[in-house]
Design a protein that fits this description.
Layout lengths: L3 E4 L2 E4 L4 E7 L8 E7 L6 E6 L6 E3 L7 E6 L4 E6 L8 E8 L12 E2 L3 E6 L1
Parallel strand pairs: 2-11
Antiparallel strand pairs: 1-3, 3-8, 4-5, 4-9, 5-6, 7-8, 9-10, 9-11
Length: 123
């Protein structure tokens, strides 16, 4: 079973940036599409971004497009989320996820989940 560990969360002021990282176990990382989800207080968990196993295809939620960038380094078994121009509405626990499918769509059916990392954006 693939283990995922997120890091990079923290407190940042509005307009600032954070870079989240997710480290995965195993030696078949390129077989997995990877994604970031988030869950804000009182809200359902929502999709943020995903990337194909090869890294050639990406998918972004409307709230992330133009501000966030998902990337991966298959040699290091990591996936990253660069978040720029953060706003208080981005405050949430961010989760890394993966699945036994190398394609970016659909935005569901993920098999592996990390424990999450807190991102707090102050006014």
């Amino acid at each position: 079973q693939v283990q995922l560990v997120e890091s990079g969360g923290g407190l940042v002021q509005a307009g600032g940036s954070l870079r989240l990282s997710c480290a995965a176990s195993g030696r078949t990382f390129s077989n997995y599409a990877m994604a970031w989800f988030r869950q804000a207080p009182g809200k359902e968990r929502e999709f943020v971004a995903s990337i194909s196993g090869s890294g050639n295809s990406r998918d972004y939620a409307g709230s992330a497009k133009g501000r966030f960038t998902i990337s991966r380094d298959n040699a290091k078994n990591t996936v990253n989320l660069q978040m720029n121009r953060l706003a208080p509405e981005d405050t949430a626990v961010y989760y890394c996820a993966g699945r036994n499918n190398r394609y970016v769509g659909p935005r569901r059916d993920y098999d592996f989940w990390g424990q999450g990392t807190q991102v707090t954006v102050s006014s």
